[in-house]
Structure to design on (155 residues):
């Protein structure tokens, strides 16, 4: 069984942009039920199908498979729930760990979130200066939530 252990943070400055070039992502959801989130993603002209289980604190079961990009694009246009998430992702190595910074576009423009995957829930790690408040336990910062409740509509 594959397990994802991830912490999420808001980003308080754009200093991360000097550290990596972005990749463009498009993703949509076939299911956003907490027990089984099913995502289709196109990233760097590759397609992916990802199935995630229910969150248990900052951990959850995750399976990801590469699929033909043409099929991923077709699923996004014909099967995905509205709203398709668009974002630029920056992958940044910082003191031995990889931070993924997602700069959201479209209906979620104005939101920037950084994620770090860990080997265990209690793993210690260094936090870059451009990282702000932790939002790991706040569902509204999950991509599946943003697909149904875009950031531009928040009050």
């Amino acid at each position: 069984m594959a397990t994802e252990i991830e912490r999420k943070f808001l980003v308080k400055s754009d200093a991360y942009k000097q550290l990596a070039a972005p990749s463009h992502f498009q993703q949509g959801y076939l299911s956003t039920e907490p027990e089984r989130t099913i995502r289709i993603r196109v990233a760097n002209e590759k397609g992916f199908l990802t199935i995630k289980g229910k969150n248990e604190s900052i951990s959850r079961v995750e399976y990801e498979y590469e699929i033909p990009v043409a099929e991923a694009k077709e699923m996004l246009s014909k099967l995905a729930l509205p709203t398709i998430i668009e974002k630029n992702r920056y992958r940044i190595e910082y003191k031995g760990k990889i931070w993924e910074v997602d700069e959201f576009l479209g209906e979620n423009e104005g939101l920037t979130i950084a994620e770090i995957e860990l080997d265990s829930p209690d793993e210690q790690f260094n936090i870059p200066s451009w990282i702000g408040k932790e939002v790991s336990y706040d569902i509204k910062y999950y991509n599946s939530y943003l697909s149904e409740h875009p950031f531009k509509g928040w009050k």
About this structure: Helices lie at 69-78, 143-148. DSSP finds two helices and nine strands in the chain.
